[in-house]
Every structure is written in C-alpha cells, then in structure tokens.
Specification:
Blueprint (H helix, E strand, L loop, with lengths): L1 H24 L15 E4 L2 E4 L4 E7 L2 E6 L5 H10 L7 E2 L4 E4 L5 H38 L5 H34 L2
Antiparallel strand pairs: 1-2, 3-4, 4-6, 5-6
Helix pairs in contact: 1-3, 1-4, 3-4
Amino acid sequence: MANNAISDAEKNMMKTVEVLTKEFATMRAGRATPSLLEKIMVQYYGTPTPINQLANISAPEARLLVVQPWDKTVLPDLEKAILKSDLGITPASDGNVIRLAIPQLTQERRTELVKVIKKKAEEGRVAVRNIRRDANDTLKSQQKNGEISEDEQRRLQDEVQKLTDKYIKEIDGLLAAKEKEIMTV
C-alpha cells in the first residue's frame, strides 16, 4: 500500500518532467526545428487538425523550415494557421511547399524567452513539490490508520524526498540546457 504511494509519486514526477521537456522543445531558440510547429492547429474540412498530420515538416538548414502538405488543397489553410500562430513568422509559399525563414533572435527577445522558460521550470518544480506533499499526506494517513509504522512512514517520506530532489535536479538541468541554447548566438 505504502509502496503504491511512492511509485505513483515517481510516475507523476516523471510525467511532469516529460511535459516540461515537450514545452521546452516547442519554444523557439533561434534555430529551426519541426517541433516549433507542433502546437499549430489547421482548420481541415472544419476540424482543427495538428499541422504535422497534414504535412511533412523538415529543417533543411539551421534557419529554414519547409512545410510540404500531402494534400496541395490545404496549402492556403496551412499558411493561415501559421500566420495566426504566435510564432511571428511570415510563411512564403510557391504553390507546392511553404518555406519559413526563422529570423535571428534579438538579445531582448532571448532575455524574454529565458524569463518564460524560468517561469515554466518553476511551475514544474511546484508541481513536483505538490506531488511530494500528496504522497506524504497519503503516508501520514496510512500511518494514522495503522497500515504502516511510524518508522516506516519516516523512511518512506525520506524516499519521497529523494525522488523530489532527483526530479527537481532534472528540471534544473533542462532549464540550464535550454537557457544555454537560447543565449547562444
């Protein structure tokens, strides 16, 4: 029963780190990656559809993304969706493919992005701490109900704390790597 609390806590902490990793991947860091377009939804026959389900997205150069739709009739809708997105990039279409030139980030924009990723990392840390609190509450109630001894509760709480430290360290590592990536000119 008590081990369930530990394994659930670890699973949830792992998920938190995975979500943060995905969030960081979709943030622009000055170089073109197909994941930049992941969040863009396109109206395809009246249904919002992720752009990567309608087109092949590639990065042939460091500052260029090429969006090649499988269905040429969807090209105008793809352009509209990219223009509406918060990327701030104007698509260039030749009737077959859309080219997205990724501009160089200004120092001011880099600083802004670092603030955003620090905020997201802090949200991740808070989520991990909330998971720790929930696990500790579960262990306290199990001890109160006589399911585990007081010594067992303390040992398991130490284990939860070690997990918390591990995942917060992982979040800090992700943050440092992304910050370095953004600040590299």
